[in-house]
Amino acid sequence: MNATIRDHTVIKRSVPKLIGLVAIIAAFVAISVWMLIGGAVDSRGEVTVYVGWIGTVFFGLCLLVAIHRLIFGHRKPVELSTLGFWDKRAFAQEVPWSAVSRISVWSHRGSTMLRIQFTDDAILRNQLTPVVNVARWLNTQSGLDGIYVASTDLDISFSELRMLFRKYLSEYNPTAIDDMK
To answer: Hey, which of 56, 64, 74, 77 has its CA 20 to 30 A from 17?
Structure first.
């Protein structure tokens, strides 16, 4: 259950969603290992083994992050208040609404997230978690600057998450661009 008290909204994590996420990622690790040991070798030969190595490393790291969030993650990972928002999965402290320059919806292959862009120096003032630092660097290399907030492991739907961010942004930083459609 999520709670809103006097313009302060706390969004809890969803353990069933996290368990489902761990199971899906574990399946991808298993498929990658199967490719790695030669279970899927066909006319492409070694290419399948290389893809297996890449998949094993990538999905293995994703699995470690998901298990870490399941066991050690914050029980209330996202908070929105009159002062700002705090996604504890990405930031070490609250981000003021004034630091947000644009919020939009990013969608790819059925995965939908909020893409939050910040004023120039705002991102540097807020300490990012190590995983988010790496993800942000990879995203900037492909032209996708910003921080992404997903409801994948939250006890809230994406449409509810979008509605909450839209409400707070319009009230506490009306100059920010709202591209959430």
So the answer is: 56
Which helix (H) or strand (E) segment is 61 a member of?
Answer: helix 46-72
Let me know how long the chain is. Answer: 181
3-state secondary structure (DSSP) of residue 175: coil
Beta strands in the chain (DSSP E): 3-4, 9-11, 78-80, 84-87, 95-96, 100-108, 111-118, 147-149, 177-179
Using CA atoms, how far apart are residues 39 and 96, in angstroms rounded to an integer?
A: 51
How many CA atoms does the CB half-sphere of 48 hold within 13 Å?
Answer: 14
pLDDT tens, residue by residue, 148-168: 888 988 999 999 999 999 999
What's the one-letter identity of residue 69?
Answer: R
0.90 exceeded by the pTM? no
How do beta strands 111-118 and 147-149 pair?
antiparallel
